[in-house]
Write the structure tokens for this entry.
Amino acid sequence: MDISMIENILFAMVRTGTPLLLVALGAMMSERAGVLNLGQEGMILVGAACGFIAAYASNSLGMGVLAAVIAGVVVSLLFAFIALTLISNQVATGLALTIFGTGLSAFLGAAYVGQTITGFNTVKLPLLGDIPLIGKALFDQDLLVYLAFALFASVFVVMRYTRLGLIIRAVGENPDVAHALGYKVMHVRYGAVMFGGAMAGLAGAYLSLAYTPMWSEGIAAGRGWIALALVVFASWRTERILLGAWLFGFASILHLLLQGYGYEISPNLLAMLPYVVTIVVLVLMMYRQQNQGLFAPRSLGQPWHAPK
């Protein structure tokens, strides 16, 4: 395997891992605030459909990204209202949201199936893009990949070094204590859920406007579920999410790599690899939880309302 081949593999790994990174960052923020939203898959699909339709109609990729983010936020608000304001079961609400998002995206995009647009082009950064091995993977990507890097750095700084990050963690650990200290628990949780929706919508925009600039039903291909597993794999730590996203991204392209080297394995079996990795990771994490414990927020998924 020569250097150019390794560079191409790393390049594809980063691209494939980008939507997982975006969704996982949003899901982690929501879960850090104590809200378990299993509707990531549905929000990705709605964002991808709305982003593609807006870009196709306006001939503007920027409008497509904006529409996808807004769509993700709107759908997340639906979840927040049902799960937080009406205090419904968060697991059931998230699953219903995925079903709703899948059907809504198929309905909205029915007239655009198979349509294509000119997506985001790669932008090579001077000097940095020429660094051996990592230059192409990190500094010769499209604008949405660079945006994902910036968002990762922003979330890392907010959660690690700012008062806002401390408040979010406090709400996720013990909302009663946070409320007693004067923090608006519902506002924080609504904001965290909306951020998660925006990130899922942005991931959808990446899929339909950059990764494969076209619309097809089910374009998310289970990435919402993989991202949820990735958050657990990363133990709700921002810095681990980036490495986890790239690991899962590599697992997603491994079947193409093995086929390229002539391994006679069923392509359907190889395509299962990222989902097999997801299951293995979840099993290992459950074993770790039983023996060592995890870093999950203590109030994750638990309903809460302000005491009267």
Q: What stands out?
A: The first strand starts at residue 122 and ends at 124. The chain has one domain: 3-291. The beta strands are 122-124, 140-142.
